[in-house]
Amino acid sequence: MSADNLSFREKVRTYLNGFSWKQATPSKFIAMGLIVLVFLIDQWSKGIILEKLSGFVHAKEITPFFDLVLVRNKAVTFGMFGGVTDTLGPWVFIIISLMACMALGMYLWRTTSVLIALCCGLIIGGALGNAFDRLFRGGTVVDFLYFHIGEVSWYVFNLADTAIVGGVMIWIIYSFFSDKKNTGNFEG
Q1: Taking the model in full, what pTM does it have?
Q2: Which positions are annotated as active-site residues?
Q3: CB-side exposure of 63: number of CA atoms within 13 Å?
Q4: What gap in Å lies between CA 31 and CA 117, rounded to an integer?
């Protein structure tokens, strides 16, 4: 039977049968440690911000271009899809985040590239940090880092967002400069 004639369930089963402990390289364990590290640092930083800035009305100026400000974000990264505010909205974002984490986890397990494994670790750790917020902090994500120069400003974000964007940017840059001959073996 050709791959085109397989049902979705059979394709998933075939894909998952390709996993083995022989693929458990040190870089994969480092990436899994990175997932945990990013998640813990993200949650620790948010806990401190919630403790120190709750009830604080204005931003706490750290430098002329950087402030700490507590924002409860109902949207996604950089305020995208902010119009989804009903009770179903957070659950949609949680499910999408967890599905993305599962897909990236499978990719992490199959990749032979150390750099791609680390990028997956950054992205998964950040996504889990924000999903945790949505589950246990009222359907919102705690954002607190605010950069600005005069009237020009950036969105308020958190360390999980930084890990996600950093992982994606490194992966994109790597894909431009990597050897394209190895596209069939999960090089990234």
Answers
A1: 0.82
A2: 143, 161
A3: 7
A4: 6
Residues contacting residue 138 through CB under 8 Å, at least 6 positions apart = 72
* Residue pLDDT, tens place only, 30-42: 999 999 999 999 9
Structure tokens at 83: 């119009």
**Spatial distance between the Cα atoms of 166 and 117, rounded to a whole number of angstroms:** 13
| Among 116, 123, 128, CA closest to 28 | 116
pLDDT higher at 12 or 131: 131
Q: Is 124 helix (H, G, I), strand (E, B) or coil?
A: helix
Q: What is the CA radius of gyration of the chain?
A: 19
- Determine if residue 81 is left, alpha or beta; phi over 0 gives left, psi from -120 to 50 gives alpha, anything else beta: left
